[in-house]
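Entry 14. Ran structure prediction on the chain below.
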Amino acid sequence: GSSGTSMAAPIVSGVVALIKQAHPDWKPEEIKSILKGTAVNIGENLTIQGYGRIDALKAVKIQKPIVSELFATPLPGGRIIINGSAAGDNLVNYVLSYGKGLLPTQWTEFYTSSSQRENDLLYHGSFNTYNLDDDTYSLRLQVKDSNNVFYEDRAIFKVNNLIIDNPLSNDIYR
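Output, C-alpha cells:
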C-alpha cells in the first residue's frame, strides 16, 4: 500500500543507507536514536505516528550522535530497574519521567543527570511503584544534546499493587 508500515519501511531503509554512507562508523543504536531524535512531530499520538515524520536531511547532517535507549526490568515488590544508554560526545543531560497510560499527556520527572551512561543503570536503586494507582504506565527517557535536540525512548510497565493488611470482617480465620 501507499501508507503505514508498507510505505514507511522502504523509506526508512533508504534514509538509513544515506546515514551509513555519510557516517560509516556509526553503530545501529546511534542511527536509531538519530532517526527518532530528528523526526518531525506531525501532531498525531505515538501509536499513529511513532516518533513522527522522518527528516532525512536533518538526520544525515547530525555530526555527533546521541544514544537514547531505555530498558525497564520489573522486580517483585513493585520495583523497576531502569537500564539503558544516554551517551554521546555532546550530551547535556538526560531526564527520566513517567506518565499514566500508553500515551500520557502529563509526565512526572523523577530523575535528571548529566552523566554519560552506556548499557548501564540510568537510575541508581530501583523505581518504586507503591504509590502509583494500578494501571499501565509509560516510562520515558529524554536525552538532550548541545544543539538542543532531544532524543527519546520509552518503555511500558504495569502496576498491580495488591496489598492485604488484615482479613475483612466477613473473613474467617482457620
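The first strand starts at residue 67 and ends at 75. Will compare against last week's run tomorrow.
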